[in-house]
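Something for you to look into today, if you have time. Could you write out one complete protein record for me, on any chain you like? Leave the record below and I will have a look.
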Amino acid sequence: MKQQTSDWNENSGSHIKIAYAGLALKELILAGLHDNFKIIYNDSIPQLEEYLGNQSILTVPDIILIEVDAEGKYVTLVEDIKKSFLLNGSIIILLSAKEDKSLKKKAMQLKVHDYYSAPFLIDNLRERLNFLVTFKLIKPRLLELSKEVDTTYKMPLGKRIIDLAISGSMLFFLSPLFLLIAIMVKLDSKGPVFYKSKRVGTGYKVFNFYKFRSMRTDADQLLAKLSAENNQYATQTGGNQAAFVKIKNDPRVTKLGMFLRNSSLDELPQLFNILVGDMSVVGNRPLPVYEAEMLTSNEWSMRFLGPAGLTGLWQVSKRGKEDMSERERKKLDNFYAQKYSIWLDLKIIMGTIPALFQKEKV
């Protein structure tokens, strides 16, 4: 069967071009995306490969939708796309007609932009495609999103004074504890004392985020596997990719690390982040880049228009509870970004003290 191109309503304002391969979900895609995108349908992966090989810089698709096949041809295709100078900027989404954890794990290893397994809501896929393209066209790298957001957060003077007072005094009085923990971490397991990672905070600003190391040194390499198999939030998204990652009974955590986490002592180095202005004492937790990339839609980007913080509303109200859903956490983050005040901050700080010592298994 030859490639089939959908009708395209130029007046709809959509100029997003999709190259699609597969038959199992074709009718669903046709019904749900036909009116919003220009879609080139291919019955098979080899047919899609032939189509992509005939494209130029002016005709290359914005999105490549691929149904996973039993022979695994999709793996080779994705790898070839990522190596291609012409195609490596395209958004790649994998679709599966059945739920299979091994397929989801493979999708994460391939580092595609998203993965959906049936049954899924076509409206969710349509919204996801629109925003992936929108933000990719603004800037291909999340590190530069901070230059593009419409609203700029300015730290209130009173909040900044409180931050400086708390972080400065705590760093001074807790310096002996810092030294003791550093020695214990060094003796407990091989690796550096501090863990540094890139986090996304206010206005999509990316900064170096510090903690006492509580995990094995190969923790980041194990994340993809554990996210696919043991993510608390994954079961709440109907098989689709979750925005947040929280590992139940995380096997990467060291013996000392478990104590540091349960007592929240591993978070103390973030007082340096507060001192230099990357974060506030109270705010929405800064997210790893892979989580922030999932929260660029209109509904959820609101959380990045408030301050990033050491503690926040969801920590004191839901921290450590098995029934905390991804949507609940997002809503709490959005609420704080819209309603924060000095009095709310003080209430959260007071609520943080008992929350620090509750045993957290998630």
